[in-house]
Amino acid sequence: MTIRLGGIIVGLGLTAVLLLWSLLPGVLNFALPEKPDYYAFQEENIAPEEGFSFEGPVGTWDVAQLQRGYQVYKEVCAACHSLKYVAFRNLEELAYTEAEVRAEAAAWTVPGINPETGETTTRPGLPTDQFPSPYQNDVAARAANNNAIPPDLSLMTKARKDGTNYVYSLMMGYVDPDPADQALSPEFETPEGLYFNEHFYNINIAMAPQLTPDRVSYSDGTEASVENMAADIAAFLTWTAEPSLVERKQTGWFVIGFLLFATFLAFLSYKQIWAGMKPKKK
Question: How many helices (DSSP H) and strands (DSSP E) are in the chain?
Fold first, then answer.
């Protein structure tokens, strides 16, 4: 009996040691993760000083800003990035008239089919068309962008954490490395063909800086500074990803009001029906 008990204890001890030995590296890696060489350069997302009009429980769209953001997309971003989940007719939500939307759509070239031959061709866009991709396929996209495929921007602010501020930060993140950070990671470098961006997840990004002062000419007279253009495109891409954002907030307030009213009616009903009833004594 004593030998058997001793064997069990030794076996449990060996099992515990092996279990701890197997788990210890994982626990240490989780508690003390190895930091990549670009870790010292990473910066948290930033936001415009005045914020965005659609933030907060009572936020609303700044239509003028959304129109400016669309202009930035059209004149800067559309050369590389698609917007495949947005149709031209959706621009009516940005206070464009039906005639303006038709004219805007016609200014774009979209894929089509020749009705006589059945072959693929191109044609002016219609309001029902989605925004076209600037490339025929991924091979062409890679060939034109140093083997990187520019992502579609339709849902970008939902695909990234803190998406609106992420887009703004990314546009503002093309700066020179901080010497103090460089000292912490002396082996870090930006390879040829990539660009340093302190808000990109691994710092080196294939997209070159796109926004420079006066890159676009705003029709409403707004200064086309890098900060303004970055904020405008961030707001526009928030709208493309969540066009019903403001409506949801407004609906939420209505629902809260209805629930409060219903609760008040239920309380009055309780007072009317049950207030006179006395509890039975045990």
Answer: 9, 4
Strand partners, 204: 196
Nearest C-alpha neighbor of 141 from the set 216, 201, 90, 84: 84
Tokens representing 72 are 């930035």
- Residue 181: C-alpha distances to residues 152, 172, 185, 198 (Å): 32, 18, 7, 11
Q: Which pLDDT score, from 0 to 100, does residue 27 have?
A: 53
Closest CA to 241 of 121, 83, 27, 64: 83
Q: Would you state the pLDDT for residue 33?
A: 53
Helix axes 63-75, 226-241, angle to 10 degrees: 100
In order of their start, the domains of the chain are 39-84+153-246 (1.10.760.10)
- Asked if 73 and 131 count as a contact pair (C-beta separation under 8 A), the reply is no
Q: How far is CA 231 from the centre of its chain?
A: 13
The token pair that represents 189 in the structure block? 């470098």
Contacts of residue 96, defined as CB under 8 A and 6 or more positions apart, other chains included, come to 67, 104
Tell me the pTM.
Answer: 0.81
Structure tokens at 14: 């060996």
Give the CA dihedral 246, 249, 250, 251, nearest 10 degrees: 120
